[in-house]
Amino acid sequence: MAKQGVLVTGGSTGIGRALVRRFARGGHRVWFTYHSNRRPAETLAAELAGEGAEVEAFEFDQGDWDSHVELHDRLPGPVDILVNNAAVGSQTVRRYVDGTPEQCDAAFLQVNSVGPLWLVRSVLPGMLDRGHGKIVNVASVGGGVATFPDFHIADGMSKAALVYLTKHLAAELAHRPVDVFAVCPGAVRTPMLQASLLDGLAGAELDDLIRRLPGERLIQPEEIADLVWWLCRDEASVLRGAVLDASLGLGVHPGLLTGPGAAMGHASSTAARSVA
Length: 276
Known about the structure:
The protein is α/β, with parallel strands linked by helices.
């Protein structure tokens, strides 16, 4: 790929961090956002700058209109590739709102669905003017592909909305030079999953969880980053509008964690709430 401007939201940890590294080391100019993880963001930017990459981090409150306007004004160049990766989950939503369950429900939709929509509206006109662009929405196997009974309902709704946004944009842009995709990861080894699930499991419970997962392993963030990288290549255009199940197969067999044969226990029910 020729050198392009890449915007990755939620780039300080987990999948986002792997995405920033993949695109920066691939020779692109990378701008990424963070909400509260300033130190990891600054460390990552300094690390990659030390390798000669062009990387810059921006504090960003996704879903807050004023913050969206500020980010748009501060970006140092045109965005050719947008990766909507930032999101809140059942364990992190209260970083955005510490209120009633109804306020948390609203935060899921505002951050995970409305925020990406606003980002698309911000960068899409420039992509169309320049005659090229890629938009990759990182959703989740829960809500984006399959239904998990113990998943937070507003969380699942927000990921389903992100998948709909992908399909709607792809249809709207059918004759325009911008490709849109959705990637739906499963159980990825990220700090969010570690804090919300893995740290709370005893050895036997953790072993049982791993055995239930397809491939009997967790997905690495770098695997998702490599997939997104490939989607931004020209040859991936044939998949325009695709919603990719990147869960090692959990999306086609969610019962591995929640079905009658899974002997639902603490590990499986918590995993269903925590995948990607």
